[in-house]
Specification:
Layout (H helix, E strand, L loop, with lengths): L1 H6 L2 E2 L7 E2 L3 H7 L2 H34 L4 H13 L2 H11 L6 H8 L14 H26 L3 H9 L4 H12 L1 H15 L4 H7 L10 H11 L3 H30 L1
Antiparallel strand pairs: 1-2
Helix pairs in contact: 2-13, 3-7, 3-10, 3-12, 4-7, 5-11, 7-11, 8-9, 10-13, 12-13
């Protein structure tokens, strides 16, 4: 981290001696037309990931917790994507999204719905990356929520049932209040993780189409390894690190409150 801070204030190609340039690297990346686009894409990706990837694991855990049969098998199925190397999972979805022989368009065509240019359209490319990320990380979140659900005293659900509460009322009045701290911690963890999204745009879209999937982490990679501007990449990395440190400080505070 200290090395990155120093790098962000240097002109350095790791061949010649580094030159101290002050805030020139920051001025360079801030005036880059892609800079704002990358931050907006990162924010949108994080927001979509929260809407999709934060909610689905919680309700998947509720469903698994309610099941009486095949629970162990379904836990394994849900957790299976986590055991795949990320590159394998992403490339699998690259075939799913193929506009010709891809699985998703074949399914849409089979039910007589219009096919989509999943990764080739600016309106669907970022959402397509969110779906990949959600599937890859579904298992971890689900098992954490499942562990939290199983720690809730059964007497609370029994009392709610005696009061005539249905499934959704039990979730709203018992499950969510009893797991609120875990929900908050997972929310902060997911924000920190999704703001660093890199492998999905790197392997699936290359930041396209029309920079619709360029994220801060991907732009940092471009500066360092495509443009050879390691100082610019370091400046972007320092900006991202400061933002994530704020969320990490909130996470540590919440964790401390949870332990107490």
């Amino acid at each position: 981290m200290i090395r990155e801070v120093l790098l962000s204030f240097q002109q350095n190609n790791f061949v010649d001696a580094p030159v101290w340039v002050g805030f020139d690297n920051f001025r360079t990346v801030i005036t880059d037309p892609t800079f704002v686009t990358a931050w907006v894409n990162t924010a949108v990706f994080t927001g979509l990931a929260l809407l999709v990837g934060y909610v689905i694991p919680f309700f998947a855990a509720i469903v698994l917790n309610e099941l009486r049969h095949a629970r162990a098998y379904l836990r394994f199925v849900v957790y299976l994507p986590v055991m795949l190397p990320p590159a394998v999972a992403v490339l699998l979805f690259k075939w799913f999204y193929d506009p010709g022989a891809g699985l998703f368009n074949q399914v849409l065509d089979a039910v007589h719905l219009p096919t989509l240019a999943w990764l080739d359209s600016t309106s669907t490319a970022l959402l397509s990356l969110v779906l990949v990320s959600t599937w890859m990380n579904l298992g971890t979140g689900t098992l954490i929520y499942l562990a939290a659900l199983q720690s809730i005293p059964g007497e609370l659900y029994e009392a709610a049932e005696l009061d005539g509460a249905g499934l959704f009322k039990r979730i709203w009045h018992v499950t969510i209040p009893q797991t609120r701290l875990i929900l908050l911690v997972m929310l902060l963890l997911q924000i920190v993780a999704t703001m660093q999204v890199f492998i999905e745009p790197y392997l699936l879209t290359g930041g396209g189409p029309e920079n619709a999937t360029v994220t801060v982490a991907y732009l940092m990679y471009q500066y360092a390894f495509n443009f050879g501007d390691f100082g610019g990449g370091g400046a972007l990395g320092l900006m991202l690190m400061i933002v994530l440190m704020v969320f990490s400080a909130v996470y540590l505070r919440v964790s401390r409150d949870t332990d107490n």
